[in-house]
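Researcher: Hi, I'm a grad student and pretty new to this. My advisor asked me to get structures for two proteins we've been looking at. I'm not sure of the right format, so I'll just paste the first sequence and hope you can take it from there.
Model: That works fine. Here's the first sequence with its structure tokens right after it:
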Amino acid sequence: MPRPVIIDCDPGTDDAVALLLAFASPELDVRAVTVAGGNVGLARTLANALALTRLAGVSVPVHAGADRPLLGAFTGEPRVHGPDGLGGIVLPPGGAPAPGIAADAIRAILRQSADPVTLVGIGPATNLALALATEPALAERVAAIALMSGAWAEGNVTPAAEFNAWSDPEALAILLAAGRPVTFATLELTAQALATPERIAQWRAKGTGRCLAAACDIQASVPPSQRLGGRGAPLHDPCAVLCLTHPRLFTSRPAHVQVELAAGISRGRTVMNRWGGVPNARVLDTLDADGFFAVLGERLATLP
């Protein structure tokens, strides 16, 4: 039976590819898409999620969520995603969002589902944390949590922190304290998912569907990462989806993960201790990159 999941996101170029991948994965039953401000502000991220859902021809409800983290305000990343979040790639507009706010929708799905639900977080963790912090008993209804978040070492928004963890570290700390299995796709892992021009060209050769074309155009708009030598751009968020459907493409290790909450230059840093403390998470370690891009291309080509 397909695994019931909620995708919590902030589209975002890599979120867009991850959403399309989730819609194309028969192993997953996407119960809802919930949206936070994150990459380019809630007005844009919500519109992008709605447009992607309509583009894929799926009837998954999309719920508006947090327009700010638990403390402070989101700081977007238009340098990577463009001012519109999709690198300037224009999609046909989507429909209206589903009624209710994201945290309420998450709690309702957890209560009503006959089976435990996996939470897939590919943006700041605000919506997921609000849902679990306001009704902690619902953590028992969570099968697992898969996150694109954190880094073993250097960050990508500050020297200490990865963007999603830095955007709402208090929310990430709440998820780590919930007592459910947590898997991290860190920057070290996603650096192995490097979308080069050659790999995007291989995707384009797989078909002529509108979703495949949009995914290729969106990913091609992302500037090459100078942090990774300028050869391409890391495709972060699909890692948190594909580790659920194709775990054979990954290796992982247990770790005790904490997030730095204090103000200052280390805020949002994820401290991942492999040798001490009781493990509270699994951290994805290596990726079969060729297999990763092959599966992604094949899946995207099945969409309209």
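Researcher: Oh nice, that was easy. Here's the second one.
Model: And its structure:
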Amino acid sequence: MSRLDSMLRRLSAQRDGLNWAADRIRDQPGDVLDLGLGNGRTYDHLREILPDRRIWVIDRMLQCHPSCTPPEADFLEGEAEPMLARLAGQDARIALAHYDLGFGIKEQDVAEAARLSPALAQVMAPGGLIISGQPLVGFEQLTGPDSIAPDRYLFYRA
């Protein structure tokens, strides 16, 4: 599979997974968390599908497309672990989290996701959903939408 085809498959899986999860949390109270803003495409999609939810964003630095800049009060700039602790200290309860942090080196990304899983658990609302490109630990793994190949995107319940 070409890198272009792989990217298209990943983006389609991400969109389908987020839409699937948004439908399942419609009646559940709580905020949304985008871990890894990047260019802002996912954040922009979350704004569109969950317009009445507060969307927290954590990233090392703000470098997204100008149209995708989160409000200053909702952007936590810095390393994920202390930012998750800060969010937990504000008693935020997350109904839906999208985990998209990484260095681009699979072994490092998997280790980082495992290391950050307990901090993520501290902010999740009971029954909240997590959509992740990396395996997480300490959560109930779910089967996502049929349109997504197994292990392309991972789905969890807190």
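Researcher: Is there anything I should tell my advisor about the second?
Model: You could mention this: The CA atoms of residues 114 and 137 lie 6 Å apart.
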